[in-house]
Amino acid sequence: MAHVLVIDVGSSSVRAAICDGSARICRETAEPYAFTVAADGTAEVDARKLRASVEGCVDRILANAPPIEAVAVATFVGNLLGVDAENQPVTPVFTYADTRPSADVEALRTEVDGARLYQATGCPLHTAYHPARLRWYARNGRIMPATWLDFGTYLYRAWFGREIPCSSSVASWSGLLDRASRSWSAEWLNILGLTPDYLPPVVGSRHAEMGLMPAHAQRWPALRDAPFFPAIGDGAAAHVGSGAISPRSTSLTVGTTAALRQMRVAETPPCPVPKGLWAYRIDETRELIGGATSEGGNAHAWARAHLRLDDEPLVFGEPFAHGLTVLPMFAGERSPGYRPDATATLHGLRLSTTPRDIVQALYESIALRLAQIHDALGGSDALYAGGGALSASPAWAQMFADAMQTPVHLMGDEATMRGAAMLALTARGLGSLASLAPSASRIFEPRPEVAEVYRAAKERQIELYRRLYS
């Protein structure tokens, strides 16, 4: 049976796994890490340290490994790294959560036709994307990189010792890729004073690299003859791994952050992007329309760290009986309003409010935020859900079903790795996405009797947002 090595560079951990020919995980290893954050909006990570974590995971997973048919990589996207001519990092890895370019977002709004470029690239002006980050770095950076890369391409260039292109999937998350031509936007490069040489070439999902540097071929003999497929966005992998593979099928992912995505055939000319959403590539023929929030499991992690909760499973009361309204934007806002200056807000505290009330309100508030994205997508018949944070809390899965009045099919917490394996296996002609898709472990049906309660709570949340960020 064929086996695939999958590397998943997430926002809070690095994982490596061996998946079999059915895209099931046979064994895996992981190493946690955290972004370096600061009150000024910093959210970055040291490229060398993150690379060492990745390589350590690969070392461990390949011990006594079976023959490897292919290597697949998924990374958190919206990341940007500057390197010199020798592929050595000269900047940290700037992440999607870094909000320091907020002023540059506002400046660019006055200089460019933001609405037109939004449709052309599928990405609005926001700190999560590269245009504002590159403008910010031009003002504040000390060393001009020879090339700007994503972290996955940096890894491959280190391992192969040559120029390696990036996938259209990763490139589409940058805000610099033209949707129609699937090449870097000449207009954005001109605005930013860059040439295409500052960015890697863009290739399709079936492109593969072989021929590791001698040191890495000796270190990883199981990978000596394996094709390495270009790194893809973790959101694209998670959507495929959720089993949402038919046209207009919708996935819900709740990990460190959260997202709703709907897969569509990539049209020519590209279809309009609904207000408040984005359009990213899976591959040459398929794209995702959807929205992501900067909050998800990170809100639960914050609550565990600061509210002195015990380790017992959380038991929640009646929806919104606590009387709290929450904007859970701990790391700024992405969809649907894209306010990088937004912060988390807790409204309605009373002397009777308990820490568990606050946690319940946080969970509910994230479900309400995703419900706004669901509305913008036009709804769906079912949500194919995954992500470690969601799988760990069935009560949260029920909240999402109630908030969107849509069945939630829980598909497991390994969607990203499974999706990356599925795409690699199909690229090798070893199956189809339909034959490799998982089955639901549990289905949460929406409760009609609480629909009005959730609708009213969503309106209160929207009104609080309007009052703060009109």
Task: Report the β-strand fraction as a percent range.
Answer: 15-25%
**How would you describe the shape?**
globular
Biggest beta sheet summary: 7 strands, mixed
Helix/strand/pairing class, anyone? Answer: alpha+beta
Uncertain residue ranges: none
- Overall pLDDT: 93
Given the structure, what is the number of helices? 16
Order of strands side by side in the largest beta sheet?
Answer: 17-18-16-15-21-22-23
Organism: Polyangium jinanense
Family: Belongs to the FGGY kinase family.
Keywords: Kinase, Transferase
GO molecular function: kinase activity; phosphotransferase activity, alcohol group as acceptor
Which helices and strands appear, and what pairs or packs with what?
Layout: E1 3-9, E2 13-20, E3 25-32, E4 36-37, E5 43-45, H1 47-61, E6 70-75, E7 81-83, E8 93-94, H2 102-111, H3 114-121, H4 130-140, E9 147-149, H5 151-160, E10 166-167, H6 168-172, E11 177-178, E12 183-184, H7 186-192, E13 202-203, H8 214-219, E14 232-233, H9 234-241, E15 250-254, E16 258-265, E17 278-281, E18 286-293, H10 297-306, E19 325-327, E20 345-347, H11 355-377, E21 383-386, H12 388-391, H13 394-404, E22 408-410, H14 415-427, H15 433-436, E23 442-444, H16 451-468
Parallel strand pairs: 1-6, 6-14, 10-13, 15-21, 21-22
Antiparallel strand pairs: 1-2, 2-3, 4-5, 5-8, 7-9, 11-12, 15-16, 16-18, 17-18, 19-20, 22-23
